[in-house]
Write a structure and sequence with these properties.
- The chain is α/β, with parallel strands linked by helices.
- The chain contains seven helices and 13 strands.
- The strands form two sheets. It has a seven-stranded mixed beta sheet with strand order 1-2-3-4-5-6-7, covered by helices on one side. A six-stranded mixed beta sheet has the order 8-9-10-11-12-13.
- The radius of gyration is 17 Å and the shape is globular.
Length: 235
C-alpha cells in the first residue's frame, strides 16, 4: 500500500476499514529536518509497511513519533522505529510501563481472553497483528508534555483527553490546515463501554476551526471542514 497525500506536508497510510483488524491510519508530516510520524502502527509488521511506503515516496525519515494515545493499535509498532523521539502525554507513561511488563505472547493473549471474554475483540486482533514476538517491546514516551508541545517542525501536539483515553492528544499541522484527531472523540474501548456510551460529539465540535481544512480520525476517512460540520449537525 502507498502513502496518500492529503494536504501540504501531510501524508496518510490508510487504515483498514475492517473493524476486526483494528488497524488505524498512520500519518506522516514530511519535513527535511526529519518527518513527524503520528502513531506507530499497530504492530512491527504494520510499521514496516509504513516505513517501506515512506521510502517509496521519497519522504524524509521520521525523527519524531507522536502517540495520539496509549492504546495498543497506536503504539505497538514503535519498536520498529529505532532512533525516533517518542512524544506522548505524561499520563500515558504509567499505563504503557504496565503494558511493557506483561508477558506478551499468543498463549498469554488466549489466557487473558479466557479469563475476561470482553477482551476478545482487542486481543484476537493483537494475535493477528503480531506474527512474531521476537524483539517486540511496548515503548513509553521518551518526551512527555502536560498541555501542549510544539515540535521543531511547527507541528503542535495538544492534550484534549476525552472518554476514549484520558491521554488523548490531537496533532495540528497549521501550515497544512490539518488536524489529526487519533481516537479522541470515539466511545471508550469495547471492553469498557456501556450501552449509554457513544461518540463524544461535544469534544469533536470543540475542535472545529475555520483555519483547519481537514480532520483526520484514525479509523475513519478524512473529512473536509464542511463535511465535518455537517456530520456533527446530523449527529
Amino acid at each position: 500500500m502507498a502513502l496518500r497525500h492529503l494536504a501540504g506536508r501531510v501524508w496518510l497510510f490508510p487504515g483498514d476499514p475492517d473493524p476486526f483488524a483494528v488497524r488505524p491510519t498512520v500519518a506522516v508530516v514530511a519535513d527535511d529536518r526529519g518527518s513527524v510520524l503520528v502513531d506507530a502502527g499497530q504492530s512491527p509488521a504494520h510499521a514496516r509497511e509504513v516505513r517501506a511506503a515512506l521510502a517509496a515516496a521519497g519522504l524524509p525519515e521520521p525523527r519524531w513519533l507522536v502517540y495520539t494515545h496509549h492504546h495498543w493499535d497506536h503504539v505497538w509498532g514503535a519498536c520498529a522505529w529505532p532512533g525516533v523521539e517518542i512524544v506522548g502525554h505524561e499520563s500515558a507513561v504509567a499505563p504503557l510501563r504496565a503494558e511493557a511488563a506483561r508477558p506478551w505472547s499468543h498463549r498469554y493473549l488466549r489466557e487473558q481472553v479466557r479469563e475476561n471474554p470482553l477482551l476478545g475483540h482487542s486481543f484476537r486482533a493483537r494475535a493477528l497483528a503480531v506474527d512474531s514476538w521476537d524483539g517486540f517491546a511496548v515503548l513509553p514516551p521518551t518526551r512527555t508534555f502536560t498541555d501542549e508541545v510544539t515540535l521543531p517542525t511547527g507541528v503542535v501536539v495538544r492534550h484534549v483527553g476525552g472518554r476514549h483515553a484520558p491521554d488523548s492528544a490531537v496533532v495540528l499541522v497549521p501550515d497544512s490546515g490539518v488536524l489529526l484527531l487519533g481516537d479522541c472523540w470515539y466511545p471508550p474501548p469495547a471492553h469498557l463501554r456501556t450501552p449509554e456510551d457513544g461518540p463524544d460529539l461535544a469534544l469533536a465540535a470543540s475542535l472545529l476551526d475555520d483555519d483547519v481544512a481537514w480532520y483526520v480520525s484514525a479509523h475513519d476517512e478524512p473529512l473536509p471542514l464542511a463535511e465535518a460540520r455537517a456530520a456533527l449537525a446530523g449527529g
